[in-house]
Specification:
Length: about 400
């Protein structure tokens, strides 16, 4: 791609980021959300299924430091996975070097085996140790000393946390017609709780957004920019390029009008006892403490876990912002020919800003209209009783 094309694309990307920031700021004000913590989630996120799977997968995501984020089930880093990695980088309280002393020169092999063999549901720390000993051919005397050290530390909060994390009760299994079943870590955001939240939610009538007058200024807390992961006005799910049309649209204003029948926030956090906030806090407040952080796991450090903005556990999803029963019209005020309108209508199968379809179910209805003044309008409707996720409130790990 030539430098000139790259520069044009960068300008389009910047305009789309500003559009996203403006729409996010508008919703934040209209819905009474904290502009320092609210992140607009684009991608047409429905609850995906009538069960808890979609909500659990969304709640397990790790939000980037951005005011707008394009989410889909396959582009979200896992909070549960990062938490499991953290636990494997810590030492138990009490006698933190007990296992290391018992294993001697074999300790490095034990650490490397754990990193190469992630736990599966139903594992225990002692069971994994025995499996390593069998696979690595460790001499019986060393294994006996190691098992004794593990049994001595099993009452420590770390070993309890590891066993809870690996327990079968930590995850829920979901059957999928014609596909393999899927397991997901349990969160407090459930479909029943989402329905209750929406039924008790508020309405937002007379939406009147104008990108030419709405500010795109973002609080400095979102230091990575205004958008993450998606920079298009029009998007095709398969082949097809909208470079020229994206540029045309980005150079003109957008308006969004209509109503939202119900919106609400839904608190989400780890459900059950698979997650130990005590262990997370012990690690977060123990920077540079080698009685807490295992020096034999150099890739798992306080910085890699908690340092802003890239630490894997420095941010988490605190609330999901839900909407239902909306009727909204998005208008691009550029001038489109009949041929351009037809191309957009037939090929923009992944959506038009800011209503993009993510993978999975997409339960709103979109209708295109070529207006008499050559502008383009897309009407989006979500029926009453259906729910989508439009955003999240970001929590920051206290340190």
């Amino acid at each position: 791609m030539s430098q000139a094309i790259l520069e044009k694309q960068n300008l389009v990307d910047e305009e789309v980021q500003n559009l996203g920031a403006s729409w996010r700021n508008f919703l934040s004000q209209q819905m009474g959300l904290n502009p320092k913590t609210f992140q607009l989630a684009i991608g047409g996120l429905g609850l995906q299924t009538s069960d808890n799977l979609g909500l659990f997968l969304m709640s397990d995501g790790l939000p980037p430091s951005s005011a707008v984020k394009y989410y889909s089930p396959d582009n979200t880093n896992s909070r549960a996975s990062a938490y499991g990695m953290l636990l494997n980088g810590l030492l138990p309280e009490g006698d933190p070097n007990g296992i290391q002393n018992a294993l001697g020169n074999n300790y490095t092999s034990w650490i490397e085996w754990q990193q190469a063999n992630p736990p599966v549901a139903g594992d225990t720390y002692l069971g994994r140790f025995k499996q390593w000993g069998l696979e690595a051919g460790i001499d019986p005397g060393t294994l006996v000393r190691g098992e004794a050290a593990i049994l001595q530390s099993e009452n420590s909060s770390l070993i309890k946390a590891l066993n809870n994390y690996m327990s079968k009760d930590a995850q829920q299994t979901f059957a999928q017609p014609g596909q393999p079943s899927v397991s997901a870590y349990i969160y407090t955001a459930t479909s029943d709780n989402a329905i209750r939240a929406i039924n008790a939610g508020q309405s937002l009538n007379n939406i009147n957004f104008d990108s030419s007058t709405e500010s795109s200024k973002i609080d400095k807390v979102f230091i990575d920019g205004s958008a993450s992961g998606f920079y298009s006005i029009f998007s095709a799910a398969g082949s097809g390029s909208f470079e020229k049309l994206n540029k045309k649209a980005s150079e003109s204003k957008f308006t969004i009008t209509g109503r939202i029948g119900k919106f609400a926030t839904l608190v989400t956090g780890p459900g059950g006892n698979w997650y130990s906030s005590a262990e997370v806090n012990r690690a977060a407040t123990g920077k540079d403490d080698n009685t807490i952080w295992n020096p034999n796991t150099p890739s798992i450090t306080w910085g890699s876990m908690f340092e802003q903005p890239e630490g894997q556990l420095c941010r988490f999803m605190q609330n999901l912002v839900l909407v239902s029963d909306y009727d909204i019209t998005v208008t691009s005020h550029a001038s489109y020919t009949k041929e351009e309108y037809q191309e957009i209508k037939t090929k923009a199968s992944a959506g038009v800003w800011p209503f993009f379809k993510s993978s999975g179910s997409f339960n709103s209805i979109s209708e295109f209209k070529h207006n008499e003044n050559s502008t383009l309008s897309i009407n989006h409707k979500l029926n009453k009783g259906l729910i989508q996720i439009w955003g999240i409130n970001i929590g920051n790990q206290s340190i």
